[in-house]
Design a protein that fits this description.
seven-stranded mixed beta sheet; Leucine-rich repeat, LRR (right-handed beta-alpha superhelix); 25 strands; ATP binding; ATP-binding; eight-stranded parallel beta sheet
């Protein structure tokens, strides 16, 4: 190694890699040092030597016979002037007789050049000036037996003598490349650009390593590919060397000890569920559903490629389930770094996160060395007092440690971000997302950031890039604006009926108690549907635990359930403490938190310790220890959304400070809202109406209530509901109106609602659970006395099959719309149960008019429906008597909108044309903006004759040219009922216009023809104008485009006023 200091590289410093230099044989270093390079080098001789090397390089590519000694002697030499000192001769070894491999050799075929390897993959390079002879023929370059070979790459290009004479005389430069295995990167071959096109930046950027002055000059020359020369005689390639496996970084002992402490701490803190239940014995492993985002398509889609969450059918949800162990598993080439878990309040998102933490502590998630759990409920999200280190070791669920340990662990975390999992639970408490992504943390060491800024930096990969981020939030709240940026979207499923049965069995140890409780829960349909929510299922079991299950009557509303749970907790706490605590102050705190959409109790508020202890003992409140830079502090927050909103509703109903107008303005449904508050607003509205009409006065709240005030508030609510028009509400608010009326348990309000409902009840886009289905089913029972009938739209609602079955069976429901596959599943279920009458009613009530296809699956389902209609049997059964006349929904389909867009439209068009002949009643066919070309137009022309009822055909904004119009024109002449034809925005030229003009007089029923913005000129326009004179029944012809001279168009309009520009 002492020899390294004697190497001079053009007087430039050398970046030495010790690992590389240890591989260079010492004999080679001796040869390098012994070479004495003259400063007065003969440039002509250098030029000749360079040309000789260049010629031999070309000979290596296409081998030719070596030159003889006589030919070498004929080479002219420059005479040295008198007085000029002869240059010192550099000893040269014999050249290797074996020629380098040809580029066409199979050893080098399809292999990328060394120069193509990206800089991050290359090892350190050592630049040493060598003569060509020494570089190519030095025996020192040969490796020892079994050792990998060094590669030498010449970094100088062949230069012209003019350029060489203008340079400072220096020796050529070679690069010694480390023999460590480098994965080759495929060479990117650019396509030939169009005239005037600019090459992309990634194709024009060239990265050249630092080398000699001659290299700097040669950068203006076009770079020539460099063929690597193997210095070994046995031609050993890199592929022959054994593959190297990446080694995991060594974990320091101090860090390893902390990891074990963290696992022990998580096992201790995550072992209990809400209510003090043990995770091992009471946890129910509910399924997760993989959700997807798609770009909106169709003529009404946003041009900015806005993404939306795909609504899954009930059958699709069963196929898309994901096990807990596969949450972090990569299903595609892109790793899952940003994962979102969506779930309504009480569905168990926090419990799932605890379970994942326990899995990691047990060694089930070996890809992570660290798991940091951050509960957004307990954080001051806007205070700019935190650093990233504080977030990890102070605000998350971690064990305490000294500064030295935390600093060592923090450095290890920063150097291994791919081994870190950060979980943000209760993300909906982060508040409004406006400006969240605009203000973000950029440094892992600076302080003065808020939690929002730290999260934004992590989410946008500005800090700790490469870590895995898991976010848990409610589906209707703030995270919806960020869904398009995440890698995986998971929805946490509710309890199935089997899960409810299993949870009840785990809750009660006595087998007889289990049976009696489960039997009573199943007998009360509404409570049984509420038990699909894990938290409400725990509430129900808690009530049954402290009551006589035989004589106890279960509550019938959500308000009554939560009220009884609260009363039971207060009663148990009063027995322990000897006195009953007044929780009026907690009601005030709950309402203040609702106004800011926060569950956290402000530390500035003075709260008596007895009241806090009472709230914690009653499971209304929960405490958490936070370690900040200023020290440890205890924070308190409401344990659940249900209890916080119940206390806030009790304050609004019973407080004298809240009059009737304030109550209606704050809580009751309105046509318009400035903000979508999601479950915050929904649950509060139900509790306010339920508490207002509750027969028994709540025992828990100590607020004195005046009967006259309550009566005035009830009258104000009734007057508001009477003036409310349910037909003007969007589906989600219409569903909430049903829930509010149900919570009142008032027959007068129920009849008022049913009386004001529109004939078409649309819940399209609102997620219908079994609880929602029961509420709608229960209230529509009043329709019989009012002689009302309804048509229900349940598309894009994810309605369960059992719920669909109940709503379809209602006598007041005369027709329904639902996903086609779910409806077919319903028919098959009724067929298996041999309920022929219900099957016949379900087939007759089903309707698909108007049918809008925005996904390929919609067309595929319609194809299946038409197949059942034609064959008169269900897919998995024999002929069915109920299908003797086919499917009325297919026979009565009048309008079909094909909105698959330009990406999917052409591919699925043949499926559409295959079923069009079966749609005998079709009157309106909209095919706008689907990139339909001449081939698709020819397919459509082949089936147009079967659409005898077609009145409107829209082919606007497609790619139909003259060939397609020629085929269409032949079929349009036989369209006896067609009244409106739109072809605007296509590629129709004069020939196509002439074909249209030839059949125009034969289309007796046609009233309007639109061919604006096509490619025909005044020739085609005159043909159409002449044909219009032979069509007296037509009302309008729109044919303006830029190819028609304005004067000609105005002249045609003067001749026939039916010709219009727009």
């Amino acid at each position: 190694m002492e020899l390294l200091h004697e190497i001079a590289v053009n007087e430039d410093p050398i970046a030495l890699d010790p690992q590389l230099l240890e591989l260079i044989p010492e004999s080679l270093l001796q040869d390098l040092i012994s070479c004495d390079f003259p400063t007065d080098l003969d440039l002509d001789a250098l030029c000749a030597e360079l040309k000789e090397d260049h010629d031999q390089g070309e000979a290596a590519e296409c081998p030719a016979p070596a030159s003889t000694e006589s030919e070498k002697e004929k080479r002219p030499r420059r005479k040295r002037p008198a007085g000029e000192r002869a240059p010192r001769k550099v000893p040269r070894l014999k050249r290797r007789k074996t020629a380098p491999l040809c580029t066409e050799s199979p050893h080098l075929k399809d292999k990328s050049h060394v120069s193509d390897v990206s800089p991050p993959l290359l090892p350190q390079l050592v630049h040493v000036p060598l003569t060509i002879a020494t570089a190519l023929n030095s025996a020192s370059l040969l490796p020892s037996s079994g050792a990998p070979a060094l590669q030498i790459i010449q970094t100088i290009n062949h230069l012209s003598p003019t350029v060489i004479n203008s340079l400072v005389p220096v020796g050529p430069t070679y690069v010694l490349v480390s023999p460590q295995s480098v994965r080759p990167v495929p060479q990117l071959v650019p396509l030939s650009p169009a005239d005037g096109a600019v090459a992309p930046a990634e194709l024009s950027r060239t990265i050249i390593p630092m080398s000699s002055l001659s290299d700097s000059t040669s950068r203006s020359q076009p770079p020539s590919p460099v063929t690597p020369i193997s210095p070994t005689k046995d031609k050993t390639t890199q592929e022959d060397s054994p593959p190297t496996t990446p080694q995991c970084p060594v974990i320091p002992e101090r860090v390893e000890d902390y990891i074990q402490q963290l696992k022990s701490h998580l096992r201790e803190t995550c072992s209990l569920m809400q209510g003090g239940l043990k995770m091992d014995s009471h946890y129910i492993d509910t399924q997760l559903v993989q959700r997807k985002l798609v770009i909106r398509t169709g003529k009404n889609a946003n041009k900015c490629l806005e993404k939306e969450l795909v609504v899954l059918l009930d059958s699709e949800r069963k196929k898309a389930t994901v096990d807990r162990s596969h949450v972090f598993q990569n299903c595609g080439p892109k790793p899952k770094r940003l994962i979102t878990v969506l779930g309504k309040a009480g569905t168990g998102k926090s419990t799932l996160i605890q379970r994942l933490a326990l899995d990691w502590a047990a060694g089930s998630l070996p890809q992570f060395q660290f798991v940091f759990l951050v509960n957004c409920k307990v954080l001051n999200l806007t205070s700019p007092n935190y650093s990233f280190k504080t977030l990890l070791f102070g605000l998350s669920t971690t064990p305490g440690c000294d500064e030295a340990v935390s600093e060592a662990v923090f450095k290890h975390v920063l150097s291994n971000p791919d081994k870190v999992l950060l979980v943000f639970d209760s993300f909906d408490d982060i508040g409004d997302l406006e400006g969240l992504l605009q203000s973000f943390a950029t440094s892992v060491t600076d302080s003065g950031y808020s939690v929002r800024q730290l999260f934004s930096g992590l989410f946008q990969k500005k800090i700790l890039s490469g870590c895995t981020l898991l976010i848990a939030s409610r589906p209707k709240d703030v995270l919806n604006q960020l869904l398009r940026k995440v890698d995986s979207i998971l929805e946490l499923c509710s309890f199935s009926p089997k899960d409810v049965e299993l949870y009840t069995s785990n809750y009660f140890a006595d087998a007889s108690k289990q049976e009696s409780v489960l039997r009573k829960i199943q007998s009360q349909k509404y409570i049984f549907s509420l038990c699909s929510n894990p938290l409400l299922c725990q509430f129900t079991c808690f009530l049954m635990e402290h009551q006589d299950s035989d004589g106890y009557t279960l509550p019938s509303t959500l308000t009554d359930l939560c009220q009884r749970v609260l009363d039971q907790h207060l009663e148990l706490t009063a027995k322990e403490q000897g006195s009953k605590q007044d929780i009026t102050e907690l009601c005030n705190l709950a309402w203040e938190g609702f106004k800011t959409y926060s569950s956290l109790l402000s530390q500035d508020q003075e709260i008596f310790k007895e009241l806090l202890d009472c709230g914690i003992n009653c499971e209304i409140l929960t405490s958490h220890t936070v370690c900040e830079e200023s020290g440890k502090s205890q924070v308190t927050y409401f344990a659940s959304l249900f209890m916080q909103n119940l206390l806030g509703a009790l304050l609004l109903v019973q407080s004298k400070d809240v009059n009737d107008r304030m109550l209606v303005a704050q809580t009751v449904l309105h046509h318009r809202k400035r903000k979508v508050l999601g479950e915050w607003q929904d649950v509060l509205q139900r509790f306010v109406i339920g508490s207002l009409y509750q027969k028994a006065t709540p025992h828990c709240c100590g607020i004195p209530q005046n009967s006259s005030d309550a009566q005035a508030k009830r009258k104000a609510v009734e007057a508001h509901l009477k003036n409310l028009n349910p037909g003007e509400l969007i589906p989600s608010r219409l569903l909430e109106l049903f829930h509010c009326i149900y919570e009142a348990s008032n027959a007068k309000l129920a009849k008022l609602l049913v009386k004001n409902l529109p004939d078409i009840l649309s819940f399209c886009g609102a997620h219908l659970t079994m609880t929602d289905v029961y509420v709608v089913w229960h209230l529509l029972q009043h329709a019989k006395g009012l002689k009302r009938t309804f048509s229900i739209d349940m598309q894009d609602t994810c309605v369960p099959l059992s719920g669909l079955k109940e709503l379809v069976a209602l006598d007041c429901v005369t027709s329904f719309r639902a996903p086609t596959m779910d409806t077919i599943d319903l028919w098959e279920d009724l067929h298996r149960s041999s309920d022929e009458l219900s099957l016949k009613n379900a087939i007759e009530k089903f309707t698909i008019d108007p049918f809008k296809a925005s996904q390929v699956g919609h067309i595929e389902n319609l194809v299946l429906l038409v197949q059942i209609h034609r064959e008169k049997k269900l897919p998995m059964s024999d002929a069915e008597a109920a299908l003797e006349d086919g499917i009325p929904a297919v026979r009565h389909l009048h309008k079909l909108d094909y909105e698959l867009g330009q990406q999917n439209g052409p591919g699925a068009f043949h499926k559409l044309t295959g079923i069009l002949p079966a749609l005998q009643s079709l009157q309106h066919l909209d095919l706008e903006n689907n990139k339909i070309g001449d081939r698709e137009a020819e397919e459509l022309a082949g089936v147009l004759h079967s659409l005898s009822s077609l009145k409107m055909l829209n082919l606007s904004q497609n790619c139909i040219g003259d060939a397609g119009v020629e085929k269409l024109a032949q079929a349009l002449s036989a369209a006896s009922s067609l009244q409106s034809l739109s072809l605007y925005g296509n590629l129709i030229a004069d020939s196509g216009a002439e074909n249209l003009a030839s059949v125009l007089p034969a289309m007796k029923s046609l009233l309007d023809l639109d061919v604006k913005y096509n490619k025909f000129t005044d020739v085609g326009a005159k043909k159409l104008s002449a044909a219009l004179k032979s069509s007296p029944s037509m009302k309008s012809l729109q044919m303006w485009n830029n190819c028609i001279p304005l004067g000609v168009f105005d002249h045609l309009r003067l001749q026939d006023p039916r010709i219009r520009a727009l």
